[in-house]
Automatic annotation (TrEMBL):
Reaction(s) this enzyme catalyzes, per UniProt: Hydrolysis of terminal non-reducing beta-D-galactose residues in beta-D-galactosides
Protein name: Beta-galactosidase
Gene3D superfamilies given in the database record: Galactose-binding domain-like, Glycosidases
Domain Glycoside hydrolase 35 catalytic span(s) in chain numbering: 12-323
Domain of life, per lineage: Bacteria
GO terms, biological process: carbohydrate metabolic process
Keyword Oxidoreductase appears in the UniProt entry: no
Active site: 158, 234
Organism: Paenibacillus solani
Record family assignment: Belongs to the glycosyl hydrolase 35 family.
Length: 619
């Protein structure tokens, strides 16, 4: 498909002037059955290239165990893009940020206390090398120099926002070349002195990331690279959401205006994101600027295509600007994917987390004198349960969790004492009877930090638990990664009309079981398969699975009000839905599968957008 070079500030494809008009679609955020639909919608908008990150933690979820199948089949995604006539930019990095768990780094790295991330630390580099030895040979046949669609490969991602170890960048560059990568290599950083100084190296093409202030950003870039092509590797056309805040929306007219200015200046660009997709499973990341902020399951990003792949007003505004500059639709827009309302589903069975049988099925206990974080016991994602016995009597004291990451539910003899959260670490009042009591602390990993100096983010409890100033010792630790095969072993029992289980193995009255974590299961029939949306009205917080596939977290804290279920995850006939609800289900134990997203993620059409569209159509 051609070889990309540059000369005198212009990209050349097979020796002819060329401009990259790219949009970001992450294969690991879209079910494979929809890859073609999303890529065709990119092409139908006038784009000639697709860009994707590659997520290390998706491909090596456990050290030495690699996955390149299903949603992780990056080679098939790239091959499909090529067959559809699109060029490809890949960004293996190995750090990607992307609001993705740990910025794409695998959680098991933190099991090595001595490892230093994103620098020339020999241990870290050895782990990168092992991964690249598996990954890069899968990409080399797909390079444009070998007749494939990949035009360019990123060396590291926004490194100037993190460090300045140029020897590390040189090592990554040399490693790509040594493994056969002979297409254009590049870095991408923000357009500031600090970022360009720290993140770029002399013999690698530098690109910049920004969402506005085009003249100012390009001027700063030109202070460092006077003769290279202008390339905005990330044109931020929307933004992502954190739990407990409002949904972010950027007006289509504003995006169109900035895009128009970039193209007027002769720049190439990659629109981040063209289609955001979904943070399925436990892969949503987090930020920490002033406080810890976990990212929602939806990665809609207010992009030109919605999370579920529908066209927006922003899509139309972008298409018109691209057409104005000679980048016309390369195909027709695909037919809309049907959406189906399957109605109410009663979750008629429940498996309590704290029953001995279920805990045995879910986890093997580990005895430890002191608290250990997840990574020290070989766990990366999900939940972890810490249990110990406290001697009594203790009157009017306070329970402290020192460095909880990220959200802990505390139980004393099976009754809830309360919640301690990373962003609200107030202690809990505790009184222990004379005969002592059992203390259970269930901690949720809500996503490792994916950007900035605090990315080293071990999970669980990282320091200790104390009552007043006295640390507690002698713990039983149960990792709860909640893999699908573990859920299949649970013992469910019928739920009564009050939403409580008829019989459990805990020696406590039903009146105190309300609010305890448990798994709720229900089945529903499907005849016509289509996309649907799981509304969690009445439920509090937890994780949802459809037919064993982890849809991600839900939380009534908002802004997200429903989870997107792509049609390919359903099957004709009976389908199984499971919720791991952390605070006890509602009385009805019902959910709704709707054909309307109701996520607060579709911006109203405003007059500025309509006016812009009309002016461009008239031209």
């Amino acid at each position: 498909m051609g070889v990309l070079t540059w000369k005198n500030g212009v990209y050349l494809l097979n020796g002819q002037p060329y401009r990259i008009i790219s949009g970001a679609i992450h294969y690991f955020r879209v079910v494979p059955e929809y890859w073609e639909d999303r890529l065709l919608k990119l092409k139908a908008c006038g784009f000639n290239t697709v860009e994707t990150y590659l997520a290390w933690n998706v491909h090596e979820p456990k050290e030495g165990e690699f996955n390149f199948s299903g949603m992780a089949d990056v080679a098939s995604f790239i091959e499909l893009a090529g067959k559809l006539g699109l060029h490809v930019i890949v960004r293996p990095s190995p750090f990607i940020c992307a609001e993705w768990e740990f910025g794409g780094l695998p959680g098991w790295l933190l099991g090595y206390e001595e490892v230093r991330l994103r620098c020339s630390d020999p241990l870290y580099l050895s782990k990168v090398d092992h991964y690249y030895d598996e990954l890069i040979p899968r990409l080399v046949p797909l390079l444009s120099t070998n007749g494939g669609p990949i035009l360019a490969v990123q060396v590291e991602n926004e490194y100037g926002s993190y460090g300045n170890d140029h020897a590390y960048l040189e090592y990554l560059r040399a490693g790509l070349v040594r493994r056969g990568v002979d297409v254009l290599l590049f870095t991408s950083d923000g357009p500031t002195d600090e970022m360009l100084l720290g993140g770029s190296i002399g013999d690698v093409h530098a690109t910049v990331n920004f969402g506005s202030r085009v003249e100012e950003s390009f001027s700063k870039y030109r202070e460092y690279r006077t003769d290279e092509p202008l390339m905005v590797m990330e044109f931020w056309n929307g933004w992502f959401d954190h739990w407990m805040e409002d949904h972010h929306v950027r007006e289509a007219a504003d995006v169109a205006g900035v895009l128009d200015e970039m193209l007027e200046k002769g720049s190439s660009l990659n629109m981040y994101m063209f289609h955001g997709g979904t943070n399925f499973g436990f892969y949503s990341g987090a930020n920490h600027i002033k406080t810890y902020e976990p990212t929602t399951t939806s990665y809609d990003y207010d992009a030109p295509l919605t999370e579920w792949g529908d066209k927006t007003e922003k899509y139309e505004a972008v298409r018109l600007v691209l057409s104005k500059h000679g980048f016309y639709p390369g195909c027709d827009f695909p037919e809309p994917i049907p959406k189906v309302a399957y109605g109410k589903v009663v979750l008629s069975e429940m498996a309590g987390l704290f029953t001995d049988t279920n805990l045995e099925h879910l986890s093997d206990p580990i005895r430890s004198v002191s608290i250990q974080p997840m990574e020290k016991i070989g766990q990366s994602y999900g939940f972890i349960l810490y249990s110990t016995y406290i001697q009594g009597p203790r009157q009017g004291q306070q329970l402290h969790i020192q460095e909880v990451r990220d959200r802990a539910q505390v139980f004393l003899d099976g009754q809830s004492l309360g919640v301690i959260e990373r962003w609200d670490t107030q202690p809990l009042d505790i009184t222990v009877p004379a005969n002592g009591a059992r203390l259970d602390i269930l901690v949720e990993n809500m996503g490792r930090i994916n950007y900035g100096p605090l990315i080293r983010d071990p999970k669980g409890i990282t320091e200790g638990v104390r009552i007043d100033n006295q640390f507690l010792y002698d713990w039983t630790i149960r990792p709860l990664p909640l893999a699908p095969e573990m859920l299949a072993s649970l013992s469910y029992r019928p739920v009564t009309d009050q939403g409580q289980v008829e019989h459990v193995e805990l020696s406590m009255p039903k009146s105190v079981r309300a609010g305890l974590p448990g798994f709720y299961r229900g089945c529903f029939p499907v005849e016509d398969i289509g996309d649907t949306f799981l509304r969690f009205d009445g439920w509090t917080k937890g994780v949802a699975w459809i037919n064993g596939f982890n849809l991600g977290r839900y939380w009534n804290a908002g802004p997200q009000k429903a989870l997107y279920i792509p049609g390919p995850l359903l099957r004709k006939g009976e389908n199984e839905l499971v919720l791991f609800e952390l605070h006890g289900g509602p009385e009805s134990c019902e959910v709704e599968l709707s054909d309307q997203p109701d996520l607060g993620q579709t911006a109203a059409v405003d007059e500025a957008v309509l006016n812009f569209v009309q002016v461009e159509e008239d031209k």
